[in-house]
Amino acid sequence: MKARRLSSAQFGLFVFAAIWFLVLVPLSALAAPYAAYVMDARTGEVLHSRNADTRLHPASLTKMMTLYIAFEAITKGEISADTIVTISKNAASEPPSKLGLKPGQKIALRYLIRAAAVKSANDAATAIGEAIEGSEAKFARRMNRTAKAMGMTRTTFKNMHGLTQEGHLSTARDMSILGRHVLFDYPQYYNLFSRITADAGVGRVNHTNRRFLADYEGADGIKTGYTRAAGFNLVSTAKRGNERIIATVFGGTSTAQRNAKIAELLDLGFRRSPSNAPLRKPDAPVYANDDTTSGGQGKTIRLSGTVKQSKRPQIRPAAEAEILVARADTAPVITEALSDGIAAALEEAQATPVAIAAPPPQIAPDDQVVLAAASMRPALRPKGLVRLLTEQRAPRAAEEQEVVTRISTSGGHHWGVNIGRYPSRFKAESVLITTALAEMSTLDGTLRKVVKRPQGFEANFLGMTRETADLACRRLAARNITCLMIGPS
């Protein structure tokens, strides 16, 4: 049977239909499902919602939770921003976007945090989770416990980077809740999300949302996300005057379309929000860093070992009286050493019996007992004088003590800011001086300190309050100067 050939008219109709389908059909019909949510950040009030509770792929919005837990772990003393992390094969093998880390490579945690927040690097996010909890599975369980404690009721995390995985889902409402917690629970780290560029240790990285941050008035964060399954996602916040709005978009069709939509939603939020709404910060979630040893309530950080010996002398109990005992042949020496008033008191003490609660020590008949008040003590104690106590104090039995360490909440001048790592001490000191002159209003009176590390010399300003350090970092970030807050050690 011969194949039937299409006529020129039929072929033209076929081509027209194909073009109509590919071009004229709205791209949104082929894109990921769309969802949007707008919130007044000050009160948590909903200003706009569309498909806000539909479970969708969050993509790299996931990294907001990864970073939130990293901030929590640093603040609670589980890990330090200076902790050196060894990159695993699992972390190094993550697909782009990535920092390009190699298996076995060593890098400070602070650089991994910058790479995950600014560049949205998947290898950095995986390395953060493994450094804190040891494995992706354990870190995902912690992410889910924290999400539940925040009220993110329709979110399930399976990994720390957000690459598409079955069951790894969230909603526009839940991601807005998470963004609000990042903003208010760890304001000292929030400036990371507004940095156009940052030093990630192995090189400088650029912000994935730098266009929107530059174009929209008041925008200062927070996180982008994209996969084929998710589309173009974004959680963004902007502040104008007393008003701050958080807007979330899932399922954008392109970067430009997503940015235009988020700008439209933020504008809507500013129109609908009151000018002077009260600030009601969200309650921080229960610290739940371990799901086996403490029933999900978090581990207590303890010092190993027990206290064997006090470094301070024990306070002498008030009930113990002091007895000065001298032999009779030393009495002339004592009399000469004492003033007339003390000598008279001595004679009276010898003539008058003194009641002593505790049994006195056995003293020979030719010995004398002298009781003197502290205010009548001679300047120099005569030779031959011996000190006794009315009762011997039994040594205390050693008690095993558990020492619990807590993070200081005094709000003292225990904070600082780090403005980078440099190849030489001279370079670090030069940058400190230049930065201090450029930002005198917040850095005046601080201590400039260069700390030598295996990777170079870190330039730090120390001796600041938490509020001053946060303000300094925000002002330095506005000048495109790398800055990271340093908490109490």
What distinguishing features does this structure have?
489 residues, single chain, Beta-lactamase, globular, 15 helices, 19% strand, Alpha-Beta Plaits, four-stranded antiparallel β-sheet, 16 strands, five-stranded antiparallel β-sheet, alpha+beta
Topology, pairings included?
Blueprint: H1 8-24, E1 35-40, E2 46-50, H2 63-75, E3 84-86, H3 89-92, E4 106-108, H4 109-119, H5 122-133, H6 136-150, H7 172-185, H8 187-190, E5 197-199, E6 204-206, H9 210-215, E7 219-227, E8 231-240, E9 243-252, H10 255-272, E10 322-326, H11 331-337, H12 340-351, E11 368-370, E12 386-389, E13 415-422, H13 425-438, H14 440-443, E14 447-453, E15 456-464, H15 466-478, E16 484-486
Antiparallel strand pairs: 1-2, 1-9, 3-4, 5-6, 7-8, 8-9, 10-11, 10-12, 13-15, 13-16, 14-15
Structure description:
This protein has 489 residues and is of the alpha+beta class. It has three domains: 30-272, DD-peptidase/beta-lactamase superfamily (Beta-lactamase, 3-Layer(aba) Sandwich), CATH 3.40.710; 322-388, no CATH class; 415-486, Sporulation related repeat (Alpha-Beta Plaits, 2-Layer Sandwich), CATH 3.30.70.1070. The chain has helices at residues 8-24, 63-75, 89-92, 109-119, 122-133, 136-150, 172-185, 187-190, 210-215, 255-272, 331-337, 340-351, 425-438, 440-443, 466-478; strands at 35-40, 46-50, 84-86, 106-108, 197-199, 204-206, 219-227, 231-240, 243-252, 322-326, 368-370, 386-389, 415-422, 447-453, 456-464, 484-486. Strands 2-1-9-8-7 form a five-stranded antiparallel sheet, sandwiched between helices. A four-stranded antiparallel sheet has the order 14-15-13-16. The protein has a three-stranded antiparallel sheet with strand order 11-10-12. Helix 4 packs across helix 5 (122-133) and helix 5 crosses helix 6. The relative contact order is 0.11. The model is unreliable at 23-30, 292-308, 319-323, 354-358, 363-375 and 385-411 (pLDDT under 50).
